[in-house]
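We were asked to recover a plausible sequence for a given structure. The inputs and outputs are reproduced exactly as logged, with field labels preserved.

PROBLEM: sequence recovery
POSITIONS: 342
GIVEN STRUCTURE:
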């Protein structure tokens, strides 16, 4: 993960800062100098105020593509987690790939985060949701920074762009937003969804057959290899190339990612998604995701799913990460509004 210094970061253009702001995905966070309690409905209201209301659609990660396939776990993962996800048998998957933010007309070359959301349908009707970003860290440590981030990035009516002074003030007072924003500035957007790794961002607990807990993070690594858009491609890429690319690629042959699980060690942060773990941590292949088909999301199965990351089956559990725990009520509030046609 290539991160610039704080000094070089502050010298970047306001446009890049704004692009980085979008990366926070569908979750809120908090100001480092004040622990303010923000409610889920307040964050959804701020999203609507910043991006506008698009009736019946998601408030964040609004632009997306549906996909379907299966996941097959490995015996190595089964030693740490009793989840049926790692039984070695194929588990049906409904997936959604997306761009962060609430602008449905965002160009696909935008320098913001991409998302992968999975609903894994286990035997007996149990569900396991996995929601990930293509950034190794998140843009906030607690549920108020994201809200402040959205407020700071709201376009000025006079210019149609965020106020640079507000953005500078935001980053100065919210250092927990720096790591993810810096990553997005130093790393170009992926050339395609299937050329991107996706990260759990949060820490989770794997619970084994003896009820012992193991702190883990994971990433999904693409078989097609990771590839970023070049500077030239950023300027010439079609407005909506990601969906077309994924649909065409899946039509040729299955698209695959390996799930690589990293085991935490004492002292590793487990409740702060803005802090990365060392790459040297023990890690292993926990399974393979195979996407067999992709379709536009309008009317497709993934469109109606609320990919709540706290929907978990036995063998996997959340940590006390305040962002992770906040996402469930925030998602629920947004989901209820779009179900009612708002």
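RECOVERED SEQUENCE:
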């Amino acid at each position: 993960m290539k991160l610039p210094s704080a000094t070089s970061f502050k010298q970047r253009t306001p446009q890049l800062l704004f692009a980085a702001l979008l990366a926070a995905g569908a979750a809120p966070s908090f100001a480092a100098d004040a622990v303010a309690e923000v409610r889920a409905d307040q964050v959804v209201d701020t999203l609507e105020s910043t991006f506008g209301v698009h009736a019946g659609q998601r408030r964040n990660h609004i632009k997306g593509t549906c996909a379907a396939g299966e996941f097959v776990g490995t015996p190595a993962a089964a030693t740490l987690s009793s989840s049926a996800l790692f039984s070695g048998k194929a588990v049906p998957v409904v997936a959604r790939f997306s761009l962060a933010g609430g602008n449905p007309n965002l160009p696909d070359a935008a320098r913001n985060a991409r998302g992968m959301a999975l609903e894994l349908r286990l035997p007996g009707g149990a569900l396991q949701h996995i929601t990930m970003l293509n950034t190794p860290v998140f843009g906030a440590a607690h549920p108020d920074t994201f809200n402040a981030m959205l407020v700071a990035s709201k376009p000025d009516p006079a210019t149609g762009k965020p106020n640079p002074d507000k953005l500078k003030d935001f980053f100065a007072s919210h250092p927990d937003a720096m790591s993810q924003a810096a990553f997005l500035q130093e790393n170009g957007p992926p050339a395609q969804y299937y050329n991107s790794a996706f990260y759990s961002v949060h820490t989770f607990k794997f619970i084994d057959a003896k009820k012992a807990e193991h702190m883990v993070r994971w990433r999904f690594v693409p078989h097609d290899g990771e590839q970023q858009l070049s500077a030239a491609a950023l300027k010439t890429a079609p407005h909506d190339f990601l969906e077309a690319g994924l649909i065409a690629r899946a039509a040729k042959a299955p698209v695959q990612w390996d799930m690589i699980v990293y085991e935490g060690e004492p002292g590793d942060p487990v409740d702060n998604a803005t802090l990365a773990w060392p790459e040297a941590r023990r890690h292993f292949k926990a399974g393979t995701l195979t996407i067999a088909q992709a379709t536009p999301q309008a009317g497709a199965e993934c469109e109606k799913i609320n990919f709540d990351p706290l929907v978990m089956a036995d063998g996997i559990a959340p940590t006390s990460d305040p962002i992770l725990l906040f996402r469930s009520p925030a998602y629920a509030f947004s989901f209820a509004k779009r179900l009612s046609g708002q």
